[in-house]
Design a protein that fits this description.
This protein has 155 residues and is α+β, with helices and mostly antiparallel strands. Helix content is 48%, strand content 21%. It has one domain. The chain has four helices and three strands. It has a three-stranded antiparallel β-sheet with strand order 1-2-3, with helices on one face.
C-alpha cells in the first residue's frame, strides 16, 4: 500500500504538464472581469449622461421661469425675457440640490432663453481595478420663456 502511494507521488512529481491550465484560466478570467466591467460601468456611463441631461433640463427650466419683472408688466406677452441674475441663481439652486457631482456648470441667459451645460461624474464599480476610476456624462439644455400655449391650437 505504501509503495503504491509512493509510486503515484513520484509519477505526479515528474509530470511536466502540471499547471498548464493556469496559463489559460488566468487570462480568460481577467477578460471576463473586464467584460463585466464594461457592461456594469458602461451602464453607469449611460446613466451619468442621462442624469446630466435631466439636471441641465431642470436647471434651464428653473432659469427660464425667473422672468424679468419689467417683461411681466409689459403689455406684449411676446416680449417675455428672463432676468439674468435671477435666472442664474435659480439654475444654480437646482444644480446645488441635484444630489450628483457636477463640474463645470455653465449658465447662459440670452433674452428669453436660458442654456445650462453640466458634466456629471460617477465612480466606476469594476473598471477601477484596471485604473479607470471615474466616468462622466455631459449635457446642455435650453429652455425658453413662453406665454400661453406653444401648440398653436385654439382649445
Amino acid at each position: 500500500m505504501l509503495s503504491n502511494l509512493r509510486r503515484r507521488w513520484d509519477a505526479l512529481r515528474t509530470q511536466t504538464d502540471r499547471g498548464a491550465v493556469m496559463f489559460w484560466v488566468i487570462p480568460i478570467m481577467i477578460g471576463l472581469i473586464a467584460m463585466a466591467g464594461l457592461i456594469v460601468d458602461g451602464g453607469n456611463a449611460i446613466a451619468a449622461r442621462q442624469r446630466a441631461e435631466d439636471v441641465s433640463q431642470q436647471a434651464a427650466r428653473a432659469g427660464a421661469d425667473a422672468l424679468s419683472p419689467t417683461a411681466l408688466h409689459n403689455s406684449d406677452p411676446g416680449d417675455l425675457s428672463a432676468d439674468p441674475g435671477a435666472a442664474r441663481a435659480a439654475a444654480q439652486r437646482v444644480l446645488d440640490t441635484a444630489g450628483v457631482t457636477i463640474t463645470n456648470p455653465n449658465v447662459v441667459v440670452n433674452g428669453d432663453s436660458v442654456t445650462v451645460s453640466v458634466t456629471v461624474h460617477e465612480q466606476t464599480q469594476i473598471l477601477s481595478a484596471f485604473g479607470l476610476n471615474d466616468i462622466s456624462g455631459s449635457a446642455s439644455s435650453t429652455a425658453t420663456a413662453l406665454h400661453g400655449s406653444n401648440s398653436g391650437g385654439t382649445g
